[in-house]
């Protein structure tokens, strides 16, 4: 089984989240379950069912993080020496050739991806289209809304 790539910064963020889920959140949820049990009849106790659902979600996330972190290959992006070529960990500024709108993404591991924070999963179609390209290259990829064309404005590593 291959090891999934993960940036050093992403690994640290995920380990911090794991620690918070195991200590702070788990204790808070256990306390909420105990308080809800004290209210009596569990069949009709919405607080109890909500707390149990939170408990299940929290434990599932803990298991997902533990499994992902144990199988991850942590890559220190700052130590990569690839010039302006795009590889895993690159921070890429691209511009839509049709609209002129520029966006910046970092190509990261699947476990740490969060598009709202500009963290693009290495397995995503746009990241796969970017890998191997260089600054000033144009590329296209098929998005759900059709084919998109972009110009690569800048590439950096930090």
The Cα radius of gyration reads: 21 Å
Distance between the termini: 29 Å
What is the overall silhouette?
A: elongated
The residue-averaged pLDDT reads 91
The residue ranges in which pLDDT falls below 50 over 5 or more consecutive positions are none
What is the makeup of the main sheet? 5 strands, mixed
What is the helix/strand order? EHHEEEEHEE
Number of DSSP helical runs: 3
The overall strand count is 7
Structural class: alpha/beta
Structure commentary:
This protein is of the alpha/beta class and about 160 residues long. The chain has three helices and seven strands; from the N terminus they run βααββββαββ. The strands form two sheets. Strands 5-4-3-7-6 form a five-stranded mixed sheet. Helix 1 (about 10-35) packs antiparallel against helix 2 (about 45-70). The model has no long low-confidence stretch (mean pLDDT about 90).
Helix/strand layout:
Blueprint: E1 4-7, H1 8-37, H2 46-70, E2 72-75, E3 91-96, E4 102-108, E5 119-121, H3 125-130, E6 138-143, E7 146-156
Parallel strand pairs: 1-2, 4-5
Antiparallel strand pairs: 3-4, 3-7, 6-7
Helix pairs in contact: 1-2
Question: How would you briefly describe this protein structure?
Answer:
The chain is an alpha/beta fold and 158 residues long. 39% of the residues lie in helices and 26% in strands. A hairpin with a 5-residue loop joins strand 3 and strand 4.
Q: What keywords describe this structure?
A:
five-stranded mixed β-sheet; 3 helices; 26% strand; alpha/beta; 158 residues
């Amino acid at each position: 089984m291959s090891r999934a790539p993960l940036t050093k910064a992403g690994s640290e963020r995920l380990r911090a989240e794991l620690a918070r889920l195991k200590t702070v959140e788990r204790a808070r949820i256990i306390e909420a379950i105990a308080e809800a049990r004290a209210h009596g009849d569990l069949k009709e106790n919405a607080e109890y069912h909500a707390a149990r659902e939170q408990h299940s979600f929290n434990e599932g996330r803990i298991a997902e993080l533990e499994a992902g972190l144990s199988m991850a290959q942590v890559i220190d992006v700052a130590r990569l020496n690839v010039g302006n070529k795009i590889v895993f960990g690159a921070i890429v500024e691209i511009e839509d050739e049709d609209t002129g709108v520029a966006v910046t993404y970092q190509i990261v591991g699947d476990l740490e991806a969060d598009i709202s924070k500009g963290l693009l999963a290495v397995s995503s179609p746009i990241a796969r289209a970017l890998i191997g390209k260089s600054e000033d290259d144009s590329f296209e990829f098929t998005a759900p809304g059709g084919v998109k064309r972009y110009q690569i404005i800048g590439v950096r590593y930090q």
